């Protein structure tokens, strides 16, 4: 793990070294002059970022007081899970009654749902704790999950960079990003999926870094084989997290597969560095199966456990298709699979995965126009409430550029350079959360699915900015200029988020103000 950032910014520099430091580095030295202050900084700064994330996600969470976009499915499914143990069906006109507080209108028949139940069980916790008669009850689970995602991203970044500063930059960017905010304020499954994918990635990273420290000490140079470690508790934790991700949406399975491959490859490289002669065979054929057994079976158990309500009752969809409940569950999964592979229904806000990096078609989840509003909004053109699941444009496009930069640099590191292990981890996350969607160009998918990708694009951006701002080959003047560019970029990102926040959160704004946000015709 690299510790250079905190040191390079001047935290441990002596006053005599000041002439070689930039103004930003000297300020860093003055703000953290003692080890005690440094320890306090490591706790206080991330806490403030987490509080910011929570405020932006919880403020006026009950607005709009209507079922937004696919909340019509997930919120009502969550309520019937509480009542029946499985997802029940509803009449077509049930939304108005549900919003008005009449939540008893579900039908005795089971509903055919195409996503596993864990995400809806989590939404149900909010419904059970706060009640179904408020948007707070519908959305509190996803709001807390979105806030937790910011914390987990900071933990990952701290491990990758060794820097609290850059960890807070990463967490702060996710805290203010529009897609992260919207998917934390609308009761869909994708924000919950993002949290558990991040947790799985964090646990894999902890396991990987701990094992790297052990490999070199346990292997003598020139050994034919290395040791096999069967007990890796962080891998068990990763298996639970990634099994839970899959139990929210099946796309969590891609993360499980990609991180499993990452573990085998990085283990092979660690054995090669330690001098193991048959390092590839050792990692794939000896440690690999043990790693699989640490990661995958617990993920399967977690996934199946999420279906406990369906298994323990008799009324769920396809529950009676076989006397053996596990066979009946398999029959149901076949029906779910057929639905997903055949989903090509036209939708005005559908956006194939190849469009996602270009941000061509964000999803409008809610839009309401009135001729007269409140608080001085009753002007010419009327007022608008909108929820657009568009990320902060600067964070998104800069993040995509950073991913390309890291990929190119990783593929061609240059003479004498070692491939960046942090970049490998980030690119694995990108591959797991984006590349599989390219394999289904005809399927109906949406830009907001990228909420799972955003944390990894932000990680890529942070790694690229860190390298740009702390170039060891640059003199203090050049480093000052580069660090100034980074500060300006972050400041502009904050301003853009302030500009966009009203149309991420259904605040009532003048119609013309809303129009200012339609930078592309396809954003309407």
Plain-language structure description:
- The protein is mainly α and about 525 residues long.
- It is built from 21 helices and 3 strands.
- The chain has helices at about 5-10, 25-30, 35-60, 70-85, 95-100, 120-130, 135-160, 165-175, 180, 190-220, 235-245, 250-275, 280-305, 310, 325-340, 395-410, 420-435, 435-440, 455-470, 475-505, 510-515, and strands at about 365-370, 385-390, 510.
- The relative contact order is 0.12.
- Residues about 1-20 have low confidence and may be disordered.
Short description:
60% of the residues lie in helices and 3% in strands.
Could you outline the blueprint of secondary structure elements for this entry?
Elements: H1 4-8, H2 23-31, H3 35-58, H4 71-84, H5 94-99, H6 118-130, H7 135-161, H8 164-176, H9 178-182, H10 190-218, H11 233-246, H12 252-273, H13 279-305, H14 308-312, H15 325-341, E1 364-370, E2 383-388, H16 393-411, H17 421-433, H18 435-438, H19 454-469, H20 476-504, E3 509-510, H21 511-515
Antiparallel strand pairs: 1-2, 2-3
Helix pairs in contact: 3-7, 3-8, 4-6, 6-7, 7-8, 7-10, 7-19, 8-19, 10-11, 10-12, 11-12, 11-13, 12-13, 12-17, 16-17, 16-19, 17-19
């Amino acid at each position: 793990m690299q510790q250079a950032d905190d040191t390079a910014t001047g935290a441990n520099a002596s006053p005599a070294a000041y002439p070689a430091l930039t103004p930003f580095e000297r300020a860093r030295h003055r703000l953290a002059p003692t080890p005690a202050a440094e320890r306090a900084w490591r706790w206080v700064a991330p806490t403030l970022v987490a509080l910011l994330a929570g405020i932006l996600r919880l403020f006026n969470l009950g607005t709009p007081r209507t079922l937004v976009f696919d909340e019509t499915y997930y919120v009502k499914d969550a309520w019937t899970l509480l009542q029946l143990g499985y997802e029940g069906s509803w009449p077509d006109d049930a939304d108005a009654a549900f919003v008005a507080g009449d939540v008893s209108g579900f039908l005795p028949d089971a509903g055919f749902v195409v996503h596993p139940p864990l995400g809806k069980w989590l939404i149900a916790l909010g419904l059970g704790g706060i009640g179904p008669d408020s948007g707070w009850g519908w959305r509190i689970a996803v709001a807390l999950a979105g806030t937790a995602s910011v914390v987990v991203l900071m933990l990952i970044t701290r491990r990758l960079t060794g820097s609290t500063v850059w960890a807070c930059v990463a967490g702060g960017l996710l805290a203010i990003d529009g897609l992260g905010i919207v998917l934390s304020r609308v009761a869909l499954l994708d924000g919950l999926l993002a949290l558990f994918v991040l947790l799985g990635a964090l646990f894999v990273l902890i396991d990987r870094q701990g094992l790297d420290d052990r490999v070199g000490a346990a292997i003598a140079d020139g050994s034919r084989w290395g040791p096999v470690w069967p007990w890796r508790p962080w891998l068990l934790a990763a298996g639970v997290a990634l099994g839970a991700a899959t139990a929210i949406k099946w796309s969590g399975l891609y993360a499980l597969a990609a991180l499993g491959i990452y573990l085998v490859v990085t283990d092979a490289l660690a054995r090669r560095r330690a001098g193991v002669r048959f390092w590839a065979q050792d990692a794939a054929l000896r440690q690999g199966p043990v790693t699989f057994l640490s990661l995958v079976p617990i993920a399967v158990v977690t996934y199946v456990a999420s279906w406990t309500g369906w298994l323990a009752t008799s009324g769920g969809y396809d529950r009676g298709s076989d006397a053996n409940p596990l066979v009946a569950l398999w029959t149901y999964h076949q029906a779910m699979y057929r639905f997903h592979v055949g989903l090509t229904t036209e939708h005005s806000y559908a956006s194939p995965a190849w469009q996602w990096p270009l941000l061509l078609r964000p999803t409008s989840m809610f839009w309401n126009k009135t001729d007269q509003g409140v608080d001085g909004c009753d002007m010419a053109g009327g007022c608008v409430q909108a929820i657009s699941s568009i990320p902060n444009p600067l964070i998104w496009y800069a993040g995509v550029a950073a991913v390309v930069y890291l990929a190119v640099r990783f593929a061609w590191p240059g003479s004498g350079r070692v491939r960046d292990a942090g970049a490998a981890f980030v690119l694995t996350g990108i591959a797991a959360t984006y590349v599989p969607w390219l394999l289904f160009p005809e399927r109906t998918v949406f830009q907001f699915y990228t909420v799972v990708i955003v944390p990894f694009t932000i990680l890529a951006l942070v790694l690229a900015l860190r390298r740009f701002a702390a170039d060891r080959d640059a003199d203090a003047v050049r480093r000052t200029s580069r660090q100034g560019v980074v500060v300006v970029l972050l400041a502009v990102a904050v301003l853009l988020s302030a500009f966009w926040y009203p149309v991420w959160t259904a605040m009532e704004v003048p119609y013309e103000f809303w129009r200012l946000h339609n930078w592309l015709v396809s954003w309407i």
